[in-house]
Amino acid sequence: AFVELAGPVLEQAERAGLPAITSLVPTQLTRIVTGATGDDARARGLLKRFAAVLVGGAATSTDVLARARGQRIPVRTTYGSSETAGGCVYDRRPLPGVSLSVLDPDEAGAGRLRISSPTLALGYLTEGGGTDGGVFAGASPSADGPAADAAVSGAVVSRESADRAFLTSDLAEIGDDGALTVLGRADDVINTGGRKVLPQDVERAIDRSLMLRGLVRTSVVVGVPDPEWGQRVEALVTLEEGTDPAEASALVRSALRTTEVPAHMIPKRVHVVEELPLLGIGKVDRAAARRLAGG
After folding, report:
1. pLDDT tens column, 100-120
2. How far apart, in whole angstroms, are the C-alpha atoms of residue 73 and residue 75?
3. pLDDT at 135
4. Cβ contacts of 98 within 8 Å, gap of 6 or more
5. Partners of 21 in the beta sheet?
6. Which of 1, 83, 165, 290 could covalently link to 222 via disulfide, CB atoms 3.0 to 4.6 Å apart?
7. Strand 75-81 and strand 52-55: pairing?
8. Where is the AMP-dependent synthetase/ligase domain (predicted)?
9. Cα 233 vs. chain centroid, distance in angstroms?
10. What is the pLDDT of residues 134-171, one digit of tens each?
């Protein structure tokens, strides 16, 4: 479908002398840059003609980004949400007027990401047609415009009326140079024996492992109930052609032992699946992944 849709758009833009920009989720980009079909090759050719290929909605593996750039595809990573009126961070840098900070950072500097921006929504539209501003700083709208003293429920926002802010559910770090690193969602954290495991840390280790390069295609790490530990760490993986599924668990666990991943973060079991479960927007469905893992 991408080939049929992108071709005419590019032709119109090129005739008009205008830059064309497209947006993909990481799963789509992964399939295009690693695919071996004729459609994949045509899609790669089309992507090279865009002025920019925006990739967001979830974390994109460093290997996929490197492969895309090696194929001369002009990828740019993005971060944003409906509440921020779309992308507000590009290639890890906030747009002008956007301010990033983390709430209650830990020793490593990681905490929940807080975004201040003049483009933030005023709140969520309620069934009665009003607006609930309880998850935003600033205020709910009134007939005369924003009311600076509107009530805010819960502890998910700051209240400075001059500094509208939104506290996301994403854990992040901000470097000394201002570069944003999104680590994962706070509600994805696995608690195993009292120790916290961010599944994205394990997924990144699998993605970056030289031992698994060309063997494991994609992975998702989840926590499943365990009578002794509360939760245990398990992984679902898809394999590259030629990898023996019977050896997948031993391969992944052995590879992670050679990294800096602590022992309690190494998956106790590794499940081989043909495809990772996805939501309609192309993100990995972690709830479905937990069910597949037996959780």
Report:
1. 999 988 888 889 999 999 888
2. 6
3. 54
4. 84, 88, 89, 115, 116, 117, 119
5. 52
6. 290
7. parallel
8. 20-125
9. 20
10. 556 554 333 333 333 333 333 334 444 446 789 998 99
Q: What is the mean pLDDT of the chain?
A: 86
Q: Which of 274, 217, 275 is nearest to 251 (CA)?
A: 217
Pick the CATH number of 189-292 from 3.40.50.2300, 3.60.150.10, 1.10.3720.10, 3.30.300.30: 3.30.300.30
Q: Contact at 8 Å (CB) between 173 and 227?
A: no
Give CA angle at 209 (203, 214), nearest 5°: 100
Write the single-letter amino acid at 125. L
Structure tokens at 256: 């992670």
Which tokens is 168 given? 């996301």
Query: Does 221 have pLDDT greater than 60?
Result: yes
Q: Any residues with CB less than 8 A from the CB of 166 and at least 6 apart, and which?
A: 83, 84, 114, 115, 117, 120, 121, 135, 136, 137, 157
CA angle 255, 258, 260 (to 5 degrees): 115
What is the distance of C-alpha 56 from the center of its chain? 7
The two structure tokens encoding residue 51:
């002025």
Reported in sequence order, the residue ranges of 91-134 that DSSP labels E, i.e. its strands, are 93-94, 99-103, 111-116, 124-125, 131-132
CATH classification number, 94-182, choose in 1.20.272, 2.30.38, 2.30.30, 3.90.190: 2.30.38
157 class by beta-carbon count within 10 Å (0-12 exposed, 13-18 middle, 19+ buried): buried
d(CA 63, CA 254): 20
Structure-token match 């933030």, residue found: 120
